[in-house]
TrEMBL record:
Signal peptide interval: none
Domain annotation Thioesterase: ranges: 68-142
Official protein name in the record: Acyl-coenzyme A thioesterase 13
Organism: Carex littledalei
Similarity-based family: Belongs to the thioesterase PaaI family.
SUPFAM superfamilies cross-referenced by the UniProt entry: Thioesterase/thiol ester dehydrase-isomerase
Name of a matching Pfam family: 4HBT
Protein origin, superkingdom: Eukaryota
Alphabetized CDD domains for the sequence: PaaI_thioesterase (cd03443)
Length: 168
């Protein structure tokens, strides 16, 4: 059986967890439905929209920063998902989509007040599967900070019909 960690290690870990916000109460606005999507939409502005290709500018502000004053990793994932779905919708229209898998490489960090170019493009489009790439680059230097690959599935019409019948 492994021995328990030294008390100072546990104290250091507890201090770190408090520092990064574990155990804090969320403000009431965070309990509102769709609050995360609202925050994500507020930091993005659309620059280019073409079928299978979208470019937006993301402004890193304190609302979406982590305790190290850099863009929060969860925000990177949320923006990647939103950009992927928008990119896929640009070629499939109103078909229902669902996220299959997403991988993200966090290569560096974007600091508060930096402008980040977020570019989503389709790498492969099949009858039922779309694979996208979403790259985050500092707007002025084009330095790559984060990159995501996402697979989305196009929901078959028969499943959509069954779900609609089930909801009635």
């Amino acid at each position: 059986m492994a021995s328990p960690p030294p008390a100072d290690s546990v104290a250091n870990l507890m201090g770190f967890l408090r520092k990064v916000g574990f155990g804090k109460t969320l403000p009431s606005i965070a309990h509102r439905q769709d609050s995360i999507s609202h925050i994500i939409r507020s930091i993005l502005s659309v620059d280019v929209v073409q079928p299978g290709h979208i470019i937006c500018t993301l402004t890193v502000n304190p609302t979406v920063a982590n305790p190290y004053n850099t863009l929060h990793g969860g925000v990177v994932a949320s923006v990647s998902e939103a950009m992927t779905l928008a990119c896929a919708k640009s070629v499939v229209g109103d078909k229902e989509l669902f996220l299959g898998e997403m991988t993200t490489s966090y290569l560096s960090a974007a600091r508060i007040d930096e402008k980040v170019e977020v570019e989503a493009s389709i790498l492969r489009q099949g009858r039922r599967v779309i694979v996208t790439s979403v790259d985050f680059r500092i707007k002025t230097t084009k330095k790559l900070f984060y990159t995501s690959r996402t697979t989305v599935y196009i929901m078959p019409l028969s499943i959509k019909f069954i779900v609609q019948l089930d909801e009635q």
